[in-house]
Amino acid sequence: MKKSVLAGIIVMALILSLPVGLNAQEIEDFDVEDLVAVAGLTYNTFDEASDGPGIYLGAGIKATPEILVTGQYERFFTADLALNGIAGTFTYDFSPLLPLDQDLPELFVIGGLGYYFGSLNNLSLSGMGVKVGAGAAQEVADDIDIRASLAYRVLDADVSLSGFEVSAGISYDF
Fold this sequence. Notes:
Helix content is 12%, strand content 59%. By secondary structure, the protein is mainly beta. The protein has a single domain (2-17, 33-173), classed as Porin, CATH 2.40.160. It has an eight-stranded antiparallel barrel. The longest helix is centred in the N-terminal third of the chain and has 16 residues, at 2-17. The chain is elongated.
């Protein structure tokens, strides 16, 4: 659990140090067009459980043109692990900061904090986890993006379930 708390502090420090300001006017200008739905498939490694696939489904809001904040449900399926997660994540699009051709895919960093619960070999477990990583998104149609990412999850849920997550998904901007 100490690793999760430390990782959470690091993620929060990264969020607070991003060169982005969210002011009261931007909050008042909320529009349904700022909403985003996300869904996808993952493949996950775990320190003390079998590796296996997972899914995620969620919704979020564009806090600024660079920051997307989402709440999502995650489910992991392995031979010995049945794990659910309720997570809050953010992505920060840093591609505008690069002095490159602007026709590149969106490049982003990921951070997140979640509560995970389930069972490992029929033993109940729960705990807090932190996720950090990077990814890319490419628009394939109006308001539809294909997303791919690689993240590392620190999760101590009575046993160490830390590991890597490779994901591929889709997002829809309302």
